[in-house]
Amino acid sequence: MNDLFFIPIIKMFVIFGVCLFFITYTTWLERKALGHFQLRYGPMRVGYHGLLQPIADGIKNFFKEEVVPDNADRAVFLLAPIISISLAVMLLAVIPFGAPITILGKKVDLYLANPSIGILFILGFATIGSYGTILGGWSSGNKYGYMGGLRASAMIISYELSMAFAVLSIIMVTGSFSLVDMVGAQQHVWNILREPVAFLVFLISGIAELNRTPFDMPEAESELCCGYNIEYSSMKFSLFFLAEYTHLFVFAALVTTLFLGGWHGPILPGVVWFFLKTFTIIFLCIWIRATIPRLRYDKVMKLEWKFLLPVALANVIATGVVMALFG
Amino acid sequence: MEKSDIIVVSRDRGEKGNYVKPFIKGLQYTLGNFFKKPITVQYPDQKTCRSERWRGLHKLNVDEKGELKCVACGLCAAVCPSQAITIVAREEIGGTRHPETFEINELRCIFCGFCQEACPKGAISLTKVYEYVDYSREDFVFDISKLRTTGEKWNC
Fold first, then answer.
1. Which of A31, A32, A38, A215 to mutate to test the interface with B (most CBs of B within 10 A)?
2. pLDDT tens-digit profile of A110-150?
């Protein structure tokens, strides 16, 4: 009874609570880091160096007026943010946060679930999560939103491919679909050393999948005035925002798990290493956002189909050949 | 096929495809900025310094005895291009003149500083106070009591 019911519930609350806390503060980190990259301070007024800013934003958004446009498809319009956030948060369930720890003589694994197809689960649900973006843009009855949704679907279809191929080479190296096994296989050598090309491809296509600068086609501010979430207000907008940052967090956690050895690291406990690596990747994403301007739409597509996909494919083949010869 | 038959479409194709170097250069630059001190001035907490010649709100100066230096000659009112100054003079026994009322409409004023230049007694001067807010238009018509204390509450 305990093992089946209570421990998973406690774990669920702890993992989702801690992760959502970190995700909320990722928004603070982004604004702050982006500010410092541009020789500004970022949020400073709410709390010490703006530390209470995410909470203030949340409260503010809560009390804003909710507007549903007249020509919006009401049901889909209301459903889209829910799809977005729920499928994004669901991804947190399969991420292994640390080595098993012992509490009160009981061995507790620091993940909610370890399905044998963990990585496929993440790839699949991340893609379904983008339905939130697409439906939200499509249903709001706004041309900008529609264009944003259209672009989002094009981006997802394109970049999912190279992402999957990059993951495929990791699956080949590890010999398992389970994220826990993947971390276990990196105890001595991190996958980034075995598969540097896959790492780069995964990083680039991941940033594209997240719709972040330089690939933020669906929400290009200057062209689409915010894109798919243009008609959303109040908490619905917040949910989109939160889903976006949850995806960012999950992506960083995934890079950590697949390439940077997960929780493995000297001296410090595993969980600390995990979050350290995750936030390094998040910082890298912010850093890239602060540096590179948005690419043109056709260049984004060209980068994927003419460069990343062939490279990822070649990498898979090369991995297979090396494994056949030496493995 | 001869070598000369090959048409070179783009000579610097190699340079065109070179995205990595500029990319890393850009990342270096932004990271350098990240560790620099931000140049933002946190305005309500910190203020930038005004120049000594800054022309802000007016102030009526007083002499050692604490009386207004102003003799109500009316030169400032005459020179004022926006006619923001209104003076009513009062002559006392012994020939000394003082302003009965001295009003400056700070909303009309264009802060040219002519009044300060025109004043033979150095009675009126422009302070460095540049931020003044109030609730009504009438509050911006400064009378003598207000002009005496300009810059005491808001100083830079």
1. A38
2. 777 778 888 888 888 888 888 888 888 888 888 888 888 88
Q: Could you tell me which chain B residue has the CA closest to the CA of A34?
A: B34
Contact, A132 vs A77, CB < 8 A?
Answer: no
B62 falls within a domain: yes
Cβ atoms of B80 and B115 within 8 Å: the answer is yes
Q: Residue A40: which of B39, B111, B62 has the closest Cα?
A: B39
Q: In this structure, what are the phi and psi dihedrals at residue A230, rounded to the nearest 5 degrees?
A: -65, -35
Q: How far apart are CA B110 and CA A106, in angstroms?
A: 79
* CA-based nearest distance B33→chain A, Å: 5
Instruction: Give domain status of residue B132, yes or no.
Output: yes
Q: Answer yes or no: do A291 and B26 touch at CB < 8 A.
A: yes
Residues in chain B: 156
Orientation angle between helical segments A196-209 and A309-326, nearest 10 degrees: 150
Peptide bond into A214 cis (omega under 30): yes
Cβ-in-10-Å burial (0-12, 13-18, 19+) of A263 comes to buried
Residues of A within 8 A of B33 (CB-CB) are: 36-39
* pLDDT tens digit at each of 156 positions of chain B: 566 666 665 556 555 566 777 788 888 888 888 888 888 888 888 888 888 888 888 888 888 887 888 888 888 889 999 988 898 888 888 778 888 888 888 889 998 989 999 988 888 888 888 888 888 888 888 888 888 887 766 544
Total number of domains in chain B? 1
Asked if residue B109 is part of any domain, the answer here is yes
B144: domain CATH number? 3.30.70.3270
Angle at A255 between CA A252 and CA A256, to 5 degrees: 85
